[in-house]
Amino acid sequence: xKEVEQxxxxxxxxxxxxxxxxxxxxxxxxxxxxxxxxxxxKEPKLLMSVYSSxxxxxxxxxxxxxxxxxxxxxxxDSKLSDSATYLCVVKDAGNMLTFGGxxxxxxxx
Amino acid sequence: xxxxxxxxxxxxxxxxxxVELRCDPISGHTALYWYRQSLGQGLEFLxxxxxxxxxxxxxxxxxxxxxxxxxxxxxTLTIQRTQQExxxxxxxxxxxFRTDTQYFGPGTRLTVL
Lengths: 109, 113
What we know:
The complex is a heterodimer. By secondary structure, chain A is an all-beta fold.
């Protein structure tokens, strides 16, 4: 079983749609959680951190469920520019990052 | 300011040859990381440096892979006797301290023929 699992997609959605991605992690001792965004043939970039209380940044909302070892990312009012691969990332007690395989999002006009 | 830079951006080599990949971290960043991303796959951790020392080499796939960092700055990842399965994008990241956000370079796309 992979340490961090994501549905690879692709998720094909129309502009303006709301889309949600899920991620599960296996290490219950994981300390911190993040979503990174990776555009085609580009490097990953930090999108947002994920806090236990949930956090929102504009159209993006991230939530963490420690009991279920589950992380989610919600994107409202999707834009064409949101098309990318979204990587779920977990930091362990040793401060090492483990990346999920990514979920590909394609927003269509 | 300048981000993480990597060179070359693309490298095509023949099976059995050695290659050297270079990473220039953000100035002042003490931690440096190497990852590998194969086509359609997630990022695979290779090695991490704190200053010039590498406390965690657990991700290096074989003894053909080695890395060094000098002067607490530039790092090189060397792959000896390259194999076709080494073909991937090799990404370098740096962070101010061990626990901080990692910033990635653009990667080196390695193709082994």
